[in-house]
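User: Sequence recovery, please. Input:
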């Protein structure tokens, strides 16, 4: 055997796959950037995903509807969680090829009674969503997204700050001149949760001289809502920045919410582009991963079982057998090795930027606590699948042992007796208002998902 056959060496996609794949990756990235800008919340990402599925002939499914081979369906769970599936011709007992990614991302949610006035300014009180580093969210342009449900049954979509003509929002920080004490605090305490108040106005109304009243008048003029409508709203503040190429070579994309739309987009488009009609395939875009996968749209919900049961029984299969023979890719991001912070990474087992899709056998922290831990047999099978299409991939773990760690939805799928492994894209500055990924890693994740659905 030759040396290169004997030795396992991590190489970049550029080296392994060459120019043609790189060009295809750059072209594929254009659609992804559009997807990012169209979907800054799980509700918006879901809408965009449904539009893409419908354009490929998928139709809305409701629990209890008939299902037969050849069907291409999607199930919209409360506007925040989506199941897209195509029913194959082989016996359903062979199992389902399942992919899961989450479409929620760390952000800043408004409290239910958000509006107040102080120092001649009006603000919204907030409660941040997911694991953010609070100091990163101050003194940066923000936009407001969400819905307001009125008691007469209307659902108003609100998006302010994405159009160039829109106003933006802001969270104040201290000036360096008066920030000496703040600067001595640990990063985690420099900005507190209750300081994440969003600046929304500074001009009083004419009669009452109240800034908040003026804000309420403006909201009423535009949306017909009053202050109590905040009680039944889901409004959140996200970075106003759009997805853009990063680097003189344009090899990377900077954007809000790569985690985890950088996996949602490839697993969804791989399904929509899939021409195989043999296997039954299911792509799940989940909500609430960033807060623990709870709620009806999170992966701890029984809905995944309901959908599998519906498909299995409609096709004359036993759901337990279908689950036992199903396979799953839990598509979520990993932390890319960052030479600015080498102390938290173990270089041999950390995903490297541009080295392709990352497979993570186990996650967890402090001795793999909370991990799914995919079987060697399943990874062996996957290696064979990926090698059919020369997909460039790497094994990777999130950071050094005992340095921190994190979990994904993998364990909430594998608990149903379904072989599951984490697959995803390495990210720089994960959970920051603007994260960075490499286009070739995005594309190899797409190619990995295509191979997974196909073979
Ligand atoms: Mn994630
Ligand atoms: Mn995350």
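Assistant: Recovered sequence (455 residues):
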């Amino acid at each position: 055997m030759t040396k290169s056959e004997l030795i396992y060496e991590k190489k970049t996609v550029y080296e392994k796959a060459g120019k043609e794949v790189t060009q295809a990756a750059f072209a594929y990235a254009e659609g992804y950037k559009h997807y990012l800008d169209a979907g800054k919340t799980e509700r918006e990402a879901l809408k965009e995903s449904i539009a893409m599925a419908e354009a490929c002939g998928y139709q809305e499914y409701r629990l209890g509807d008939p299902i037969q081979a050849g069907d291409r369906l999607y199930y919209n769970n409360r506007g925040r969680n989506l199941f897209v599936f195509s029913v194959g011709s082989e016996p359903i007992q062979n199992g389902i090829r399942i992919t899961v990614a989450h479409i929620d991302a760390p952000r800043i949610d408004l409290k239910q009674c958000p509006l107040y006035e102080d120092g001649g300014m009006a603000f919204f009180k907030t409660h941040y969503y997911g694991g953010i580093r609070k100091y990163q969210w101050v003194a940066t342009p923000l936009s407001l997204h969400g819905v307001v449900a009125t008691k007469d049954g209307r659902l108003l979509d609100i998006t302010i700050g994405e159009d160039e003509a829109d106003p933006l929002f802001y969270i104040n920080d201290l000036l360096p001149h008066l920030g000496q004490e703040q600067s001595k605090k640990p990063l985690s305490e420099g900005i507190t949760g209750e300081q994440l108040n969003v600046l929304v106005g500074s001009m009083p109304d004419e009669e009452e001289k109240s800034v908040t009243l003026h804000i309420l008048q403006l909201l009423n003029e535009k949306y017909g809502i009053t202050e109590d409508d905040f009680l039944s709203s889901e409004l959140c503040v996200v970075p106003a920045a759009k997805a853009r190429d990063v680097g003189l070579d344009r090899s990377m994309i900077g954007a809000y919410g790569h985690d985890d739309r950088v996996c949602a987009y490839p697993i969804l488009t791989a399904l929509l582009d899939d021409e195989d009609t043999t296997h039954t395939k299911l792509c799940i875009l989940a909500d609430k991963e960033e807060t623990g996968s709870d709620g009806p749209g999170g992966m701890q919900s029984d809905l995944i079982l309901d959908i599998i049961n519906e498909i299995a029984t409609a096709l004359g299969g036993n759901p337990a057998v279908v689950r036992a023979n199903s396979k799953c890719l839990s598509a979520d991001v990993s932390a890319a090795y960052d030479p600015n912070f080498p102390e938290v990474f173990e270089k041999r087992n950390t995903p490297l930027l541009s080295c392709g899709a990352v497979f993570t056998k186990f996650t967890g922290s402090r001795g793999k606590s909370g991990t799914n831990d995919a079987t060697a047999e399943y990874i062996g099978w996957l290696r064979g699948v990926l090698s059919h299409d020369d997909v460039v991939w790497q094994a990777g773990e999130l950071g050094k042992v005992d340095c921190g760690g994190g979990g994904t939805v993998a364990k909430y799928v594998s608990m149903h007796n379904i072989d599951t492994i984490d697959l995803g894209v390495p990210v720089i500055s994960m959970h920051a208002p603007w994260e960075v990924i490499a286009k070739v890693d995005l594309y190899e994740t797409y190619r990995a998902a295509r191979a997974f659905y196909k073979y």
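The CA atoms of residues 8 and 120 lie 63 Å apart.
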